[in-house]
Specification:
116 residues; 6 helices; elongated
C-alpha cells in the first residue's frame, strides 16, 4: 500500500510540474501576443509585398499594348505572387483573348501572358 501511495505522489508531483510549465508557457505567449497587438500594423508586416490585383490587371493590359511601358521583370514577379491565383491569371488570359489550356500550370501561364 505504501508503494502505491508513493507512486501516486510521484505521478501527482510530475503532473504538477507539467502544469506549472504549461502555465508559464501560456503566460509567456499571452505576453508576446499583447506586445504584438501594441505594435503599429506596419511593423508587424512580414516584409512581403502585396499586389493590388486591379492595378496588376491594368499593368498587364498596358504591357500587352506597349511592352516598353511596363518593366517586364517586375510584372512577372508580381504575377508570380502567391495571392495571384491561377484562376485569376486564366481569367485575365481570357479577357486578353489569349487561348490557354485550363490545365496549364502557373509559370507557363505567366509566360503566355507576357509573350507578345
Amino acid at each position: 500500500m505504501e508503494g502505491a501511495i508513493a507512486l501516486l505522489e510521484n505521478k501527482l508531483d510530475l503532473l504538477e510540474r507539467r502544469l506549472n510549465h504549461l502555465t508559464d508557457a501560456i503566460s509567456n505567449l499571452t505576453h508576446s501576443v499583447e506586445s504584438l497587438k501594441q505594435r503599429p500594423a506596419a511593423s508587424r508586416s512580414t516584409g512581403r509585398k502585396t499586389v493590388d490585383l486591379s492595378d496588376l490587371a491594368a499593368r498587364l493590359k498596358q504591357f500587352r499594348q506597349d511592352p516598353s511601358s511596363v518593366p517586364a521583370a517586375q510584372l512577372k514577379a508580381d504575377l508570380n505572387q502567391k495571392q495571384v491565383t491561377k484562376d485569376c491569371l486564366l481569367a485575365w488570359a481570357e479577357e486578353l483573348g489569349i487561348t490557354v489550356p485550363k490545365k496549364i500550370n502557373k509559370p507557363p501561364l505567366i509566360e503566355r501572358l507576357l509573350a507578345l
